[in-house]
Amino acid sequence: MDHSTLKRFSVSMEGQLLQKFDRLVSDKGYENRSEAVRDLVRDALIQHSWEKDEQVVAGSILLFYDHHQRNLLDEMTNIQHSMHDNIIATTHFHLDHSNCLELIIVKGKAKEIQQLSNKLTSLRGVQYGKFTVAPIEHI
Hints:
With 139 residues, the protein is α+β, with helices and mostly antiparallel strands. The chain has 2 domains: 13-49, Arc Repressor Mutant, CATH 1.10.1220; 56-135, ACT-like. Chain A, domain 2 (Alpha-Beta Plaits, 2-Layer Sandwich), CATH 3.30.70.1150. It is 39% helix and 29% strand. Strands 2-3-1-4 form a 4-stranded antiparallel beta sheet, with helices on one face. The longest helix is centred in the N-terminal third of the chain and has 17 residues, at 33-49.
């Protein structure tokens, strides 16, 4: 890495979040926070680069949510039905009385899959969402 191109910036976050981040930095073996932030930014940029892409991809959307959230299940179902051509399979797990985990296996144009993921993960009641993707050669 060419240190002459490095730019400094500051980041503000809650103390508890910073403690958790510092544990992550240590657990992953980073020498410092900057290395970890660079990796996180690179990963976000790679994921974002798919958003407008016409390339066909396969992947998964992982959702962790509280099924008691009003209208959430109806909204999730409506979104999934509106993009049913991109959904290969879904698996739903009941984790406890309130929390569910849903795994949605997807395939299609990267920009469409990204839109589906964004719609689902931004719903009120979805506590965590993760979109993973890999390019494939053919539909």
